[in-house]
Amino acid sequence: MNKKVSFLLGLLLLVNVVVNAQTVSSFFEKYAENEQFRFVSISKGMINLASLFGKEDAGNELMLSHLDEMKVLTLHASRKSNSAKAFFVDIESLLDTKPAFVGLMEAREKGVYTKVLNRQNKNNKTDIVIVSKSDTVQHVIWLSGKIATEELQRMIKK
Known about the structure:
The chain has 158 residues and is an alpha+beta fold. The protein has one domain. Helix content is 44%, strand content 32%. The chain has helices at residues 2-20, 24-32, 44-53, 58-66, 82-95, 149-157, and strands at residues 37-43, 67-76, 102-109, 112-120, 126-133, 137-145. Strand 4 and strand 5 form a beta hairpin. The chain is globular. The model is unreliable at 5-21 (pLDDT under 50).
C-alpha cells in the first residue's frame, strides 16, 4: 500500500511539474492576446530581410543570420502596478526553468534596469532574453536561434 501511495504521489508531482513548466514560447503566447501588452513577433524571413537594409557589420549580420525568431512584449504600466508585478513573477518563473538562464549583463541607468540572459538547449539552440524595467514601461525581448557564445560576447561588447 505504501509503495502505491508513494508512486501515485510521485506521479502527481511529476505531472504538476510538467504542466506548470513554462516554455519561452508559451510565456509569450500567454501575454500576446492580453490587451494590456503590445506584442511583436518577427520571423526568420523578416529578420533576414531587415538585415539586407541595415548598416553593414559582418559580426551583426552573422548573428542575425543565425536567428530563427524574435518576440517582444511591452507593458505600459508602472513597475509597481499589479499587472507589472504579476508579469515579473511570471518572468522569474520562466528564467528558472531548466535549463536555467545565465546572466550575461546587467545595467542600471536613469531609472531603467536592463538584464540580458541566455541559455543553450539540448539541440544547440540559444535563447536570449532581455528584460528591461522602468517606472512606466516594461519590456521582455526573446531572441532564438543557433548563436554561438562568442557571437553573443561580440554583440554585447559593441
